Amino acid sequence: MRRTSHNGGFWICLLINIVLNFEGAIPGVILLVCYFVFGIPWWLSLIAFAIWILGIIIWMFVIGWAGSCSSESRPTKNKNPYSNGRNQNPYSKSNERFMPKKPDDTN
Protein backbone atom coordinates (compact mmCIF):
# COMPACT_ATOMS: atom_id res chain seq x y z
CA MET A 1 0.00 0.00 0.00
CA ARG A 2 1.30 3.43 -0.87
CA ARG A 3 2.20 5.67 2.05
CA THR A 4 1.65 9.40 1.95
CA SER A 5 4.04 11.94 3.40
CA HIS A 6 1.49 13.59 5.69
CA ASN A 7 -0.86 12.43 8.43
CA GLY A 8 -3.42 15.24 8.11
CA GLY A 9 -7.09 14.97 7.41
CA PHE A 10 -8.41 13.90 10.83
CA TRP A 11 -11.23 16.44 10.86
CA ILE A 12 -12.21 15.75 7.26
CA CYS A 13 -12.24 12.02 7.97
CA LEU A 14 -14.31 12.58 11.12
CA LEU A 15 -16.80 14.70 9.20
CA ILE A 16 -17.14 12.07 6.48
CA ASN A 17 -17.61 9.34 9.09
CA ILE A 18 -20.30 11.37 10.85
CA VAL A 19 -22.16 11.80 7.57
CA LEU A 20 -21.81 8.12 6.68
CA ASN A 21 -22.84 6.95 10.17
CA PHE A 22 -25.74 9.36 10.66
CA GLU A 23 -27.94 6.55 12.01
CA GLY A 24 -25.87 6.63 15.20
CA ALA A 25 -27.46 10.00 16.02
CA ILE A 26 -30.98 8.54 16.10
CA PRO A 27 -30.99 7.85 19.89
CA GLY A 28 -29.83 11.41 20.55
CA VAL A 29 -32.53 12.83 18.27
CA ILE A 30 -35.20 10.70 19.95
CA LEU A 31 -34.07 11.86 23.38
CA LEU A 32 -34.05 15.47 22.19
CA VAL A 33 -37.62 15.11 20.93
CA CYS A 34 -38.59 13.52 24.26
CA TYR A 35 -37.08 16.55 26.01
CA PHE A 36 -39.41 18.89 24.12
CA VAL A 37 -42.46 16.62 24.38
CA PHE A 38 -42.19 14.96 27.79
CA GLY A 39 -39.72 17.21 29.60
CA ILE A 40 -36.96 14.67 30.28
CA PRO A 41 -33.50 16.16 30.97
CA TRP A 42 -31.80 17.55 27.84
CA TRP A 43 -28.38 16.31 28.92
CA LEU A 44 -29.44 12.72 28.15
CA SER A 45 -29.54 13.58 24.45
CA LEU A 46 -26.19 15.35 24.82
CA ILE A 47 -24.70 12.19 26.35
CA ALA A 48 -26.14 10.09 23.51
CA PHE A 49 -24.57 12.40 20.90
CA ALA A 50 -21.23 12.39 22.78
CA ILE A 51 -21.17 8.58 22.95
CA TRP A 52 -21.88 8.44 19.21
CA ILE A 53 -19.06 10.87 18.33
CA LEU A 54 -16.65 9.20 20.76
CA GLY A 55 -17.42 5.81 19.23
CA ILE A 56 -16.64 7.15 15.75
CA ILE A 57 -13.34 8.67 16.95
CA ILE A 58 -12.30 5.42 18.67
CA TRP A 59 -13.18 3.46 15.53
CA MET A 60 -11.07 5.86 13.42
CA PHE A 61 -8.08 5.29 15.72
CA VAL A 62 -8.55 1.50 15.58
CA ILE A 63 -8.69 1.53 11.77
CA GLY A 64 -5.66 3.88 11.61
CA TRP A 65 -3.70 1.60 13.92
CA ALA A 66 -4.66 -1.48 11.90
CA GLY A 67 -3.54 0.27 8.71
CA SER A 68 -0.14 0.99 10.22
CA CYS A 69 0.33 -2.72 11.02
CA SER A 70 0.70 -3.67 7.38
CA SER A 71 2.79 -6.64 6.40
CA GLU A 72 4.54 -4.66 3.71
CA SER A 73 8.26 -5.37 3.78
CA ARG A 74 11.15 -3.24 2.68
CA PRO A 75 12.18 -3.45 -0.96
CA THR A 76 14.59 -6.28 -1.62
CA LYS A 77 17.00 -7.09 -4.40
CA ASN A 78 15.33 -8.43 -7.54
CA LYS A 79 16.17 -12.13 -7.69
CA ASN A 80 14.01 -12.92 -10.68
CA PRO A 81 16.25 -14.59 -13.28
CA TYR A 82 13.89 -13.63 -16.11
CA SER A 83 13.82 -9.89 -15.43
CA ASN A 84 17.19 -9.50 -17.18
CA GLY A 85 17.94 -6.23 -15.46
CA ARG A 86 15.11 -4.25 -17.00
CA ASN A 87 14.81 -1.91 -14.05
CA GLN A 88 18.51 -1.27 -13.75
CA ASN A 89 20.30 2.02 -14.11
CA PRO A 90 21.83 1.94 -17.61
CA TYR A 91 24.67 4.26 -16.56
CA SER A 92 25.87 2.13 -13.63
CA LYS A 93 29.17 0.22 -14.11
CA SER A 94 27.68 -2.84 -12.44
CA ASN A 95 25.18 -3.20 -15.29
CA GLU A 96 27.66 -3.48 -18.17
CA ARG A 97 26.99 -7.17 -18.53
CA PHE A 98 23.29 -6.46 -19.16
CA MET A 99 23.79 -3.35 -21.27
CA PRO A 100 27.24 -3.36 -22.86
CA LYS A 101 28.68 -0.07 -23.97
CA LYS A 102 28.69 0.70 -27.67
CA PRO A 103 32.10 0.48 -29.32
CA ASP A 104 33.64 3.77 -30.21
CA ASP A 105 33.67 4.55 -33.93
CA THR A 106 36.85 6.56 -34.09
CA ASN A 107 38.47 6.38 -37.53
Describe the model.
The protein is mainly α and 107 residues long. The chain has a domain at 11-69. The chain has 3 helices and no strands. The longest helix is centred in the middle third of the chain and has 26 residues, at 43-68. The two termini are 54 Å apart. The model has no long low-confidence stretch (mean pLDDT 79).
Search tags:
single chain, 107 residues, mainly alpha, 3 helices, 47% helix
Shape estimate: rod-shaped
**Gyration radius, to the nearest Å?**
29 Å
Overall strand count: 0
DSSP strand content: under 5%
What are the low-pLDDT stretches, counting only 5+ consecutive residues below 50?
Answer: none
Largest sheet: none
Helix and strand pattern: HHH
Rounded mean pLDDT is 79
Number of helices: 3
Q: Termini distance?
A: 54 Å
Structural class: mainly alpha
Into which percent range does the helicity of residues fall? 40-55%
